[in-house]
Description:
Strand order of the largest sheet: 2-3-4-1-5
Helix content: 55-70%
Distance between the termini: 31 Å
Structural class: mainly alpha
Largest sheet: 5 strands, parallel
Number of strands: 8
Oligomer: single chain
Shape: globular
Number of helices: 39
Strand content: under 5%
Amino acid sequence: MGRSRPTRVVGNLPFAVTSFVGRQREIREVRELLATARLVTLTGVGGVGKTRLASEVAAISGRSFPDGVWLVDLSAVGDPDLVAQTVLTSLAIVDVSNRTIEEQLVEHLADLQALIVLDNCEHLVDACSALCNLLLRSCAGLRIMTTSRELLGVAGEHVYTVPTLSMPSPYDPVTLGALAAYDAPAMLVERARAVRPDLTLTERDADVVARVCERLDGIPLAIELAAARLRSLSLSAVLDRLEDRFVLLAGSIRAAVPRQRTLRALIDWSYELCLPTEQLLWARLSVFSGGFTLAAAEGVCAGPDLPRERILDLIDHLVAQSILAPVPTDGPPRYRMLETIREYGWQRLTERDATDSVCKRHCDHYLTLAERIAGAWNGPGQAAGLAELRTEFDNLQAALDWATSTPTAAREALALVTALRYHWCADGFLGEGRRWTDRALRVADDVCPERVSALWVAGWVRLLLGDTEAATEALDECAAGAAAMGDRHSLGWVSCLRGTAEAFPGRLAPAIAAFEKTVADYSDDDDVVCMTLFQLAMAQAHAGDRSAGATARRGIELADQQDERWTKSYSLWALGHDQYVRGDYGTAVESTRAALEIQREFNDHVGAALMMELLAWIAAARGEYRHAARLMGAVGSVWRRIGTSITAFGPQLGAQHSACERTLTQSLRQAEQRAETARGAALDHAQAIGYALDPNQTAQEPDEQQNTELTTRERQVAEFVAQGLSNRQIAERLVLSPRTIDRHLENILCKLGYSSRAQIAAWTARAHRVR
């Protein structure tokens, strides 16, 4: 029997910042292909709009894929070995399994009806081909849409060549009215009015508009860049500069097809129109992957030739010229480049022979960021720190890749994997942590303080993945090096983790002895003591030691003294477990729910699953069998998603899990147990936590509340989004401006807490069912 399917469409499609112009024929044709083909590749010249077309088709097709529509951006991935990991991360699958990434993907997608969009595959064709072949052969309900300048060559691949935007024939007379029927002129005019709201066109301008689009070959990216120039130039001036520049540059890259020459010429032109300082910043900004903050740009790109105080002003100029795009965020200002623009900037940086120095500054910046977050861990701001690291995932990958590939940066590599320890172990990136710590240790085998620290981090990661033997090897080497260097902090972590290595297999007496010795010997190291106390409390509870509750309370008190949250949640869980085994079910529920409430702030699926398990056991012990069955279904789904089980954390926990299952089997009718388990399994991670904290809530209540939050107009817009209409079409139906529709959509996304049109469509469908 397959897994119960979630009751709502999920996915991660971003909300478009600009309106989508035209392409109705292309959307229809790609959707028709997708209805019959399991692999559709959108190909075409760089800048032709493959990504935007794929995103629009995916958003409109959301309701056809009840298990989600997922966008995987590969533009920032340079290593073919990281393709599968990027897919795993984009699908929000927590990687804490010792199985291969491919095996985890197959397991997750095997019974789902989902669409995955692999974007920007051309530089990773072999890896993408192999992964698509595996997934399509193993997952019957899966469809994949890719964008690539090169075909994947997979059996069953259907290819759609994305054309340039439609334009009038150069031999036909045009009028302003006739131009509205063609996508390229419509886009140019719309983007021009975005930068010049007072722009008015006459019939004499119609021919100029058509000729500009002709010179740009209808390439959307080229039109975007040219429209930005209309901020300071007239249409005729743009046309003059395009004609002169293209003739001049066409012969320099004859190997490229004409459209590539055109796009390159336009980017060359944009580059040469920048001031020298703007050109320099453009080149240096190309070191960033997946976007960057203003602070990062200042830290990495500033220098004697580029004063720090000038960076903001220069970024503003580059935004105005469509070289940079602001990224909507609730945090600090953030920007990103189109990949074509970033690649161009990297070429210019290479010409300056400056890639190594800029990469070094980039790595140093993110090392400082990671060390700041790790250094402040035992205090407030833990969840915010982890969220910041998740936002900078692509940049951290780029920094790690450079550091582990550059012999002179070996120590930076070791320091970075150490600084990211809570990202690995408390934020659902265990698989990444294992790969990067192993790689850093391989390329830097000299005994040094950075290696000693990286070794205990490697031991921690390996223990959580169940590889006790490899963890012990790392801890042994760390202990020897730390003792020789007098590194008490590393010795404290080794002592704590040796206790963990005893506790996981169920060897309680040596585990308790190791934990007690750690607390006694390293009482001045709050990091180590906080990590040790909750583990000691659990081991004592398993052993029937009546001091378990006092140990857990000591951990809670120490965490509260520092306003620390993460280990506090585990100490509360340990306290709840001790209260449960002693039959004090009421206080056990209070303690465990308090622990789980804290976990809402984190991405720690293991911790949340352990706490929901305990709540299920307590419910069964209190005779709340249906509630317990639903919780067991929810937590079982979590364990499957992260590729492990509760038995990995000790045989005692595994025995209590089995006892709960036996109780439910004996106390519920088979059909009743199956139904409740299925209801629990259908909850996503956030819904499962919400149900565990408040069993009286229903799946409908959030929708009803959200429905009342939207205005009448916003509900109308949401209905049209669900019907697959574009912003322009919605504006025409409601007799409003497209900009007004943009604002309504932003309000809807904000109120519902969503990030894509597909989620709005799913919400609308659920609202209909509720009504």
